[in-house]
Amino acid sequence: MAEKTGPGMEFVRRHTLVTRLTHWLNVLVISLLLMSGLQIFNAHPALYWGEKSTFADPWLAMTSVTVADVPRGVTSVGDLQFETTGLFGFSGKQGMGEARGFPSWATIPSYRSLADGRMWHFFFAWLFVINGLVYWLWGLIGGHIRHDMLPKRAQLKPGHILHELVTHAQLKFPKGDEARTYNVIQKFTYLAVIAVILPMMVVTGLCMSPGFNATVPWLTDLFGGRQSARTLHFISAGLIVAFIVVHVVLVLISGVWNNMRSMVTGKYAIQLQGDRP
Amino acid sequence: MTATTNRRRWLGVAGASLGAMWLTACDKLTADPKFSGVLRKAEGLTMKAQRLVTDRKALAKEFTSVHISRDFKSNGTRFPTDEDYVALLADNFAGYKLVVDGLVERPLELTLAELRQQPARTQITRHDCVEGWSSIGKWTGARLGPLLDRAGLKPNARYVVFHCADTLEQTLDGTGKYYESIDLIDAYHPQTILAYQMNDATLPVGHGAPLRLRVERQLGYKHAKYVMRIEVVENLDTVDANGQTVLGRGKGGFWPDRGYEWYAGI
């Protein structure tokens, strides 16, 4: 399976076709879902806990207030208030600003249209679910989850985890045999994304549906009500954004061309170490 | 200028241009009827999937009186200014009569007193707005199913249309009048009622006096307020001899005519 290249280098097959296809489809679909989701959020840029909205007391809100004839964007989180003009609450080009939760460059469509945002969101939500099902079915049947994603016993030893955390923080990336598999931090992070955060998006999304509430009422109760589900949908989306930022930065600094090649063609170059062939 | 700052600037410009291209592309695709037509296919899939996994009579969650919202939001029309409505309101709806017609064997005209004698149901439910917020209220009203049975549906009856008193958008062709429609599965759902009471009091104007629809497994905009007439039809997009749609713009409701889903279960 490995082919030899130059001295001290070896190509291994890093990612299977299914991993690569589902990965890049997710790049597109999640981008569209995030941006159309922010459009939907903008229709009522406030979040609550529980079943119902307590309009006077959201835990998070983006509003526009006029101070001395100048409109300002204000974001409040609990009792804290931040001025976020240009980003949250009020944004837009000079003289063309408008009251809106997220700015127009972050939403699909860029102009305000809840109906169009929903049209994008629910189409790509279906693609997202189908893509996820393909990945999980293939991963469970084909062994990708068991062999590549679940940490090996040796990787779970506290000493090893500590060692990985330290070298990761120093931005020293694995070489040689260690680079053949995901390290334990990668495994934990990817598992959290594919097994917790992404499914959480689907489930909390469904829990906002009045039709689905009648199908499985206990599921919405589990999250503490429809408004809690909406809040958790938003927080999970935030976690995805945080993951993407860290993921992209690490891809860039740990050998961007090698990483990109492996996710496009499947081939990943490994630098052989020491006296091993 | 150093090579690094040059490269950073170049990358920044490239990133911003790519972002702008992406946004323009998404806006153009949104406006493209063929593309949006494909995206809108998801609505049918969602409806079929929800209907497949949901019992026809599965109830929306009901709450107890402690959960009732004290700040239940009034949305859409809050006070109709349409002449006919203003006249009815001035008389406290003494002259109000709900018309039930269309594909029925026995068209009906019912006063509020007669509606209050119909088989009724009281429910404390959560109202989910398409904008994302929710409020909880207690509703009492005549069940739609028995009312339709009293009128007797003709064999080709498929949809129930609710014609409202309020004009939500001023238009030249009159398509700004509010209306909504549901199919017979939702029409015969036990929680589908024509509410004349909210939170144990007469239905206030802001929430649709004298009569509003409650169709609890769908979003708020389906819950037509100020209901004046119930028309049973076979199709929602029927056109007349001039090629004009008979009902609004042919999508089965004020908001569906403006791009929102007709099936508002999600």
CATH class of chain B: Alpha Beta
Domain module count of chain A: 2
Oligomer: heterodimer
Largest interface pair: A-B, 46 and 49 residues
- How is the largest sheet of chain B built, in terms of strand order? 2-1-10-5-6
Shape of chain B: globular
H and E string of chain B: HHHHEEHEEHEEHEEEE
Runs of chain B in which pLDDT lies below 50 for 5 or more consecutive residues are none
Instruction: Count up the domains of chain B.
Output: 1
The largest sheet of chain B is:
5 strands, mixed
Corresponding CATH superfamily of the largest domain in chain A: Transmembrane di-heme cytochromes, Chain C
Radius of gyration of chain B: 22 Å
CATH topology of chain B: Sulfite Oxidase, Chain A, domain 2
> Number of DSSP helices of chain A?
9
* Class based on secondary structure composition and strand pairing of chain B: alpha+beta
Distance between the termini of chain B: 54 Å
Give a description of the structure.
The complex is a heterodimer of chains A (277) and B (266). Chain A has 9 helices and 9 strands. Chain A is α+β, with helices and mostly antiparallel strands and 277 residues long. In chain A, the strands form 3 sheets. Chain A has a 4-stranded antiparallel sheet. The mean pLDDT of chain A is 93. Chain B has 266 residues and is α+β, with helices and mostly antiparallel strands. Chain B has one domain (58-258): Alpha-Beta Complex (Sulfite Oxidase, Chain A, domain 2), CATH 3.90.420.10. Chain B has 7 helices and 10 strands. In chain B, the strands form 2 sheets. Chain B has a 5-stranded mixed sheet with strand order 2-1-10-5-6. The model of chain B has no long low-confidence stretch (mean pLDDT 96). Classes of the chains: A alpha+beta (277), B alpha+beta (266). Chains A and B meet through helix 1, helix 2, helix 6, helix 7 and helix 8 of A and helix 1, helix 2, helix 3 and strand 4 of B.
